[in-house]
Amino acid sequence: MAITVTVVDDHPAILSGVRAWYAEAATPIEVIAAGTTADVAWTPPGDQADVVVLDLNVGAGDAPYQRAVRRLVDADRKVIVYTMQDSEDVALTCLDLGVSAFLTKAEGREHLVAATISAVENRPYLPPTLAGAIAADLGPSQPRLSDREREVLTQWFQCESKQLVADRMNITPRTVDTYLDRVRVKYANVGRPAPTKAALLARAIQDGLVGLDDL
């Protein structure tokens, strides 16, 4: 069965290009709705797309993208931000809000397709450009993680579920949760909360805890 996508973008050329990229992908991906505002994503529950690809130039007023992202994420939608903005602050804000991935439009077809598949599989995705920018900004306050916490963290980034991590490491899913909770608490204690999987990956790359080769 094909992955379904709603694309929110105000540029016709981008919409056409994204449709073509998905149509050419080895994994079946179908754009079932497209429009210039996030309202297009609000279809009846049975008709909602698996993934929403969202440009940040939507809405009006102060920080309109934050409202659009928060509304979609709060409704348990998988959101990929696809934007011309390349600000690390904007990227981390979106990741903290709970998006599945943040891509700049310079990333192109390969990364948008890969990010879409990763979102459906519940895996975070950071393209090289953003990963490099995040890694270059070494935060002043890094949590001190144990070797076991790092191992669980890396395994979780590689897996679709905590059950798979548990199977790989011969531990229980509850133990996986315990380790991940400890990591989140440590990040919160140094003033760098990471409430989502994608946000935690961004923090881990920032701090050199994992690299792209680990994923």
Amino- and carboxy-terminal Cα gap: 26 Å
Shape: globular
What share of the residues does DSSP label as strand, in percent? 5-15%
- Secondary structure category: alpha/beta
Give helix and strand order, one letter per element, not per position. Answer: EHEEHEHEHHHHHH
Residues in helices, as a percent range: 40-55%
Biggest sheet, strands in spatial order? 2-1-3-4-5
Query: Could you name the CATH topology of the largest domain?
Result: Rossmann fold
The helix count comes to 9
Q: How many extended strands?
A: 5
Q: Considering the protein shown, what is the CATH homologous superfamily of the largest domain?
A: Response regulator
What is the CATH level 1 assignment of the largest domain?
A: Alpha Beta
Return Rg in Å.
17 Å
The main β sheet shows up as: 5 strands, parallel
What's a quick, concise take on this entry?
The chain has helices at 12-24, 64-74, 88-97, 109-120, 128-136, 147-158, 162-169, 173-189, 197-206; strands at residues 3-8, 29-35, 51-54, 78-83, 101-104. The protein has 9 helices and 5 strands.
Task: Characterise this structure.
This protein is an alpha/beta fold and 215 residues long. The protein has 2 domains: 134 residues, Rossmann fold (3-Layer(aba) Sandwich), CATH 3.40.50; 68 residues, Arc Repressor Mutant, subunit A, CATH 1.10.10. Helix content is 47%, strand content 13%. The chain has 9 helices and 5 strands. A 5-stranded parallel beta sheet has the order 2-1-3-4-5, sandwiched between helices. The model has no long low-confidence stretch (mean pLDDT 84).
